[in-house]
Specification:
2 domains; elongated; alpha+beta; Antioxidant, AhpC/TSA family; Thioredoxin_domain; Glutaredoxin; AhpC/TSA; peroxidase
């Protein structure tokens, strides 16, 4: 896409690969010279140093032209310190599912894209409601921990850990072979694996993104939920900790409720 540069003086080209190795906050907004949009754009600008400190770059997108972006900055909006992209073909908005086709404008969609270019978080607001950069920073910090973060989690707080007591550990030592079918980015898969690791249980992980035999297994069973945890002859679909604990021989009193 063509974009107005961060300093507001030049027209440049931007593409997703330009941000490889960094986090990207990609946020869409409806139109220049409107009411809610400038409050959002300036709010993100005011927090841009906090985003940079977190290793993230900002990129805003609307269907206006770069000339309109520049005119807006020079006539009221002011400099932002990050690029403003112009999706005049509407292709990028459509690809991210934020295009209002009849109006030819974008919804308030926001995407956090990790250094490997994977979308890790997405949210779409009603166009009457502006977004909060501090909430985006909170979510970014949570994603960067790589762990489980409870509702209302704040930077510096501990992650959740699957519940396993020292008393359970000896019981787990003699369990049947464990196999777990997973996909990259599956948070429930990570939770079950962490539970097994903390219990000292060895397991075989089948990455369904690469393993054809694993894909065939899922298809033959008609399974769609993840993870699929196989303990002996029992196949447990999804994040069902009570069943997983029962299959491992744990007492009902210690099951996750």
């Amino acid at each position: 896409m063509e974009a107005l540069s961060a300093d507001g003086e030049h027209f440049v080209r931007v593409a997703l690969p330009d941000y490889a190795g960094k986090w990207l906050v990609l946020f869409f907004y409806p139109m220049d010279f409107t009411f809610v949009c400038p409050t959002e754009l300036t709010a993100f600008s005011e927090h841009r140093e906090a985003f940079r400190a977190a290793g993230a770059e900002l990129l805003s997108v609307s269907t206006d032209s770069v000339y309109t972006h520049q005119a807006w900055q020079r006539n009221g909006l002011g400099g932002l310190g990050y690029p403003m992209a112009a999706d005049q073909t509407l292709r990028v908005c459509a690809d991210y599912g934020v295009l209002l086709e009849e109006e030819g404008v974008a919804l308030r969609g926001l995407f956090l894209i990790d250094p490997e270019q994977k979308v890790r978080y997405s949210v779409i607001h009603d166009n009457n409601i502006g977004r909060n950069p501090e909430e985006v920073l909170r979510v970014l910090a949570a994603l960067k921990t790589g762990g489980l973060c409870a509702a209302g989690w704040k930077a510096g707080e501990e992650n959740l850990r699957p519940d396993i007591s020292e008393r359970e550990a000896p019981v787990l030592a003699g369990t049947a072979p464990v196999r777990i079918y997973t996909m990259p980015g599956c948070s429930y898969c990570r939770s079950v694996k962490e539970f097994l690791r903390q219990g000292g249980i060895s397991y075989e992980e089948i990455n369904l993104a690469e393993d054809k035999a694993g894909q065939a297994f899922m298809e033959s069973r008609g399974y769609t939920g993840l993870p699929v945890t196989v303990i002996g002859a029992e196949e447990i679909v999804g994040y069902n900790m009570p069943r997983i604990k029962a299959a491992l021989g744990l007492s009902g009193a210690n099951e996750v409720k």
